[in-house]
Design goal:
It is built from nine helices and no strands. By secondary structure, the chain is mostly helical.
């Protein structure tokens, strides 16, 4: 019957569902940005903008893993040097993560197969150990002494230093503190600093 229809068994195995036309990066980045959470947009938005600058008129299925690695190296080399500079590793890591997010959406939207995702074939740089360290006991004692003996309101300054020492809250947590956040049974423990 297949012969009468002019179809071979190989033709049946080679049938693939029709894909939608593949968009360019300039067309697709706004679609992805609109589909993700505001936190993801904040984290990856600047990296998606760099991708659009570099490849805006290219279709999303065109770049190969080696091209992504070249873009990653360019981004890493052109970071703004700050006091806590780590050689652009974080920027390179975020670029790869942003592209992985974009390509996951492209696979979900049917523009690519999962095996065609070039971003998963590119390694993210490993994070270096944190440079943050706790303040030593002697230094903390000096800070407490200075806060308690200087300034316009040494009592308040001492209380603020104690708040930060005991709760490990950051500036935003201290500024957001309200009277109802105080736990009168376990002073000076605070309920809300578990999540800040």
């Amino acid at each position: 019957m297949l012969e009468r229809m002019g179809i071979s068994p190989a033709d049946l195995l080679d049938v693939r569902p029709a894909r939608p036309p593949v968009p360019t990066f300039a067309e697709y980045v706004p679609v992805v940005a609109a589909a993700v959470s505001s936190g993801t947009r904040r984290a990856y938005g600047s990296y998606w903008n760099r991708v659009v600058q570099a490849w805006g008129d290219r279709r999303i299925d065109e770049p190969r893993p080696s091209e992504i690695e070249q873009l990653r190296a360019r981004v890493q080399a052109n970071v703004v040097a700050r006091r806590n500079n780590r050689g652009g590793r974080s920027a390179a890591e975020h670029l790869v993560a942003a592209l992985r997010c974009l390509y996951r959406r492209a696979v979900a939207d049917g523009y690519l197969d999962a095996a065609e995702n070039p971003a998963v074939k590119v390694a993210k740089p490993r994070r270096l150990p944190s440079t943050r360290r706790a303040i030593g006991d002697a230094r903390l004692a000096e800070i407490n002494e200075a806060a308690a003996s200087t300034g316009d309101d040494p009592g308040l300054d001492s209380l603020l230093i104690r708040l930060h020492t005991e709760t490990a809250c950051r500036r935003g947590g201290a500024l957001a503190l309200r009277p109802r956040d105080l736990d009168p049974d376990q002073c000076p423990a605070f309920r809300r600093f578990a999540s800040i």
